[in-house]
Amino acid sequence: DAPPGRVAADVPVDERFMTLALEHAATGLGRTAPNPPVGCVIVQGSEVVGRGFHPKAGEPHAEVFALREAGEQARGATAYVTLEPCSHFGRTPPCADALIAAGITRVVVAALDPNPQVAGRGVQRLRDAGIVVDVGVLEAQAVRQQAGFRSVIARGRPWVVAKYAMTLDGKVAALGEGNGAVSGEAARERAMHWRNELDAIAIGSGTLSLDDPALTVRGVPSGRDPRPVVFDRRAASDPQARAWREGAVLVTAPDAQVGTLEAAGITVLRADTLPDALRGLGELGLSSVLLEGGPTLLSAFLEQRLVDEVRVFFAPKLLGAGLSPLTGPIRPMHEAQTLDDVTVEPLGPDVLVTGLLSDI
Ligand code: AOF
Ligand code: ZN
């Protein structure tokens, strides 16, 4: 990844600065929910004089930090913002007003804010004040970066990313004893970045008892751990498992006997169905979920069309007998769920394939 401040010289000017704004916004990924990650860059002439990102709900918005850095140099400058500047009093005052007061004369916006309290009013307010506003620069990237926020607003549930690593013969684990890692170091490092960038990490009770995964972020500078979410209908999981750390969520049946786990300060979410469970996670302020296994949970999500994005590592290994990533029913090829916007990337000896199952 190019560090903030470095972009290719041949991209048109607006895209170049919006790329920077998106990079700043990315610093907030995994930290801003239920708010979106947003970045802002202020440009005077061709010089960047201010930059900012939204660090956390309740703290100032991206524009405020960028305006603070720019100071007097904001007068007559252009602001690049990855989301339409807000027009409402929420936890913080309207950014549109702050941009107007600072003397900004042009605002370039990547994507409009779907929040019904804003939804075009931010742009209108800026235009009413005589500011030139251009909307839609790198919109697709911005929308993708804000997928969690947009998903909760549009569907009342978090954006769900399914992740696994499998051998070339389609096995995610060996059977019986001796279960080492499937993928290599570079793949694991990438997966750690995803954990850092998504709000929650979900597993099923089977994975909890088989692997007792830590579900933490290792080796990412300034990384923070996602909230663990364990799907366990019967609430029968080992209360000593590593997933039950501060902030953990138990998703269980309405009539399950929770006992010890509840006493341990874990958030208990009672839901009859997976869509209800996801709505509940959204209400807890979680905008995105990384689904890390195992086959039973992943299959249930897929069957109910609740997976929005898939990220799979293929490791150049052949295992023979082993565990499949999915346990779904046998069906004809024309019923396969097919990914859109597919990317393929070599990572050390492994290959990462990603794609979307939902529109954003
Ligand atoms: C912006 N810039 O950096 C962000 C925006 O409660 P508040 O005041 O934090 O407002 C939250 C809403 O503001 C959020 O739902 C979204 O509509 C917008 N987020 N807007 O101009 C920012 N994070
Ligand atoms: Zn704002």
Automatic annotation (TrEMBL):
Residues 12-134 form the CMP/dCMP-type deaminase domain. GO terms for molecular function: 5-amino-6-(5-phosphoribosylamino)uracil reductase activity; diaminohydroxyphosphoribosylaminopyrimidine deaminase activity. It catalyses: 5-amino-6-(5-phospho-D-ribitylamino)uracil + NADP(+) = 5-amino-6-(5-phospho-D-ribosylamino)uracil + NADPH + H(+); 2,5-diamino-6-hydroxy-4-(5-phosphoribosylamino)-pyrimidine + H2O + H(+) = 5-amino-6-(5-phospho-D-ribosylamino)uracil + NH4(+). Its cofactor is Zn(2+). The keyword Zinc-finger does not apply. In the C-terminal section; belongs to the HTP reductase family. In the N-terminal section; belongs to the cytidine and deoxycytidylate deaminase family. This is Riboflavin biosynthesis protein RibD.
